[in-house]
Amino acid sequence: MTESVPQQSRQSAADEWLRTLPCRIGQIFVDRTAEGAFALRHRDDVNREDLAVYRDAEAAVAIAQYDDAGVYRPLKTAPNLRHGWSLMLADVTAVRVALDLFYPGRIPAYVAWRRGTLKTTPLRETLERQTGMYRVTAKITDEQANELVGSFCRSDGGCLRTIRWDRDIQGAPPSTLLPETKFDPAHDQMGKGEPVIPLLCQEPCNLLVAEARKVVKGSAE
């Protein structure tokens, strides 16, 4: 989780990178048109001219909801954002709204990291505070956790976030099956080798916790 920062400071820090365009965040390419509007599109669609055009930041909700095959996307930072759209926005405020809909919570996390105030939570701490049906996740072994994180969190087909948390308070890596680049904010998790604004992951997500439950329950059965 991140520390609370004044709204004005949070906005100015988030806007800083928009002064140098084009830029990239996750699978999204951000640029400005000749008329001065902000243009967002899929990074794979930069040179396409047959895109469906939207002019409301709220359109990001529908764009991000399903992948190219029409399958629901429960994890918004998965590398399966659908193609074929262009979001034309009038100002920075609209861009912030759209990006928060595409990648919830990632701009505040980035701002906190830039300020040196990003707080991280180890996997073990996250699992040990679970209650109810998820309490059993605390029983996952280190070997099981290593395999789970290595598979679920991988950038290729898993999640584009850059992991900042450890496995435990001793600082053990989340998974030895992930490359070192998975923990490097300077690395383009899309594998394109381009400058990017990282999608930082400060604590294990609810979907990973749900998968941990499956692993533990499966081993018990």
Describe the structure.
This protein is α/β, with parallel strands linked by helices. The chain folds into two domains: 7-104, Gyrase A, domain 2 (2-Layer Sandwich); 123-220, Alpha-Beta Plaits (2-Layer Sandwich). The protein is 32% helix and 11% strand. It is built from seven helices and seven strands. The strands form two sheets. A five-stranded mixed beta sheet has the order 1-2-3-5-4. Strands 6-7 form a two-stranded parallel sheet. Helix 6 (142-152) crosses helix 7 (206-220). The model is unreliable at 1-10 (pLDDT under 50).
Explain briefly what this protein structure is.
The protein is built from 7 helices and 7 strands, in the order αββββαβααααββα. The chain is α/β, with parallel strands linked by helices and 221 residues long. The longest helix is centred in the last third of the chain and has 15 residues, at 206-220.
